[in-house]
Amino acid sequence: MNLNYMALAVPVFLLFIGLEYLISKKLGRNVFNFTSSITNMNVGVAERLIDMFTAASFYFFYEYLHEHYAIFDIKPGILMWVSLVLATDLIWYWYHRFGHEINIFWGFHVVHHTSEEFNYTAGTRITVFQAFVRTAFWAVLPVIGFPPAMITTMLIIHGFYPFFTHTQLIGKLGILEHVLVTPSHHRVHHASNEAYLDKNFGDMFIIWDKLFGTFAEEKETPKYGLTKQLGSHSFLWQHFHYLVELAYAVKRTPGVYHKLKIIFGRPADFDPELRGVAEKRFLSKHKVRTRSQKFRFYAVIQFALMVTTLFFLLLFEHYIATYIQIMVALTIFVTLINCGAILEQRRWVFYIEFMRASLIVLITFYYFPHPTTFLFLSALTVACLAYFSNLQKQYLSIIYGR
């Protein structure tokens, strides 16, 4: 069978998250927060989903560059693999550093740093934009002459290794601290302590940080998240908040030169007051006030069903029609938005439910294109619209309690 075995990454990551959770409980370490962990993994689900539609195009992009612009004809060998590991990590270092030091790139990368907790769920928190920006940086590799097959293999390794550096349960690792990026080094990178800001950009090797003067050893206890915490679990807002703030800054700044100076300026020099302006414009203040925790259970059920669907979608992607892939992907994205809205106790979450139900109806009709099915689904839709207000009240009551 022509299965996509990369889908196994989903249960593997979940297994290690579960193990870390159990070990942290046994050790009495409070390193998990329910809402934050679900939010982190939701971001990871989106990245895996986007990767399904884009991975092949990235490979063909590398192949085109290698075929038409390669400077050297590099053949796989031990020395060349070692060279590729070092070259990939060096490019990652600068890609990652620019992601922290240039506003437009920080707007794409900030999603990874929004979490106020640091554990394996934060390791899954990879923005959907990262693959595109990263590909642009790594385009130099096929131009040098590295074959696309070698590059994509190395990208898989680079996708797995940093996941395991996102933990508070592993202390310093002796001699390895001098060469590899360890959990201790990466805790520094994710910290918002002033002494730790813009430090330890390496992905696999810490040597680049020591070489370019961006290394910091873990000494004081890290405080995780942003220097100005986001305070929102909205899937969309976590992805777009900084880009929206950047757009406001550019809009209010006269002159092309000064606009470009903001876009390519440093986040450290960015006006923090713009966060409040953007939140006032785009974040609804209408929440359901409840002490019930029922919505958490519903969020977990949604997440479990969504991840299961994602796993089988990835595993059998070569056997699933493109139309169904797109519709299921849209359903998952709507569910991600839905989960974020539920965790924030938004009243408008019912409209998202209605949108998701509509997508499921379209998927159902694809597999059962019978007039009876059409009539039944049409009647059901009309009934839901007719009793929309009552259904909304019942739904909010079930999710959030009375």
Automatic annotation (TrEMBL):
Keywords: Lipid metabolism, Membrane, Oxidoreductase, Transmembrane, Transmembrane helix. GO terms for biological process: lipid biosynthetic process; membrane lipid metabolic process. It is a multi-pass membrane protein. The keyword Cytoplasm does not apply. GO terms for cellular component: endomembrane system; membrane. Pfam families: FA_hydroxylase. It is found in: Endomembrane system. It comes from the Bacteria. Residues 82-214 form the Fatty acid hydroxylase domain. The chain crosses the membrane at residues 77-95, 136-164, 295-316, 322-343, 350-368, 374-392. GO terms for molecular function: glyceryl-ether monooxygenase activity; iron ion binding. This is Sterol desaturase family protein. It comes from Dyadobacter chenwenxiniae.
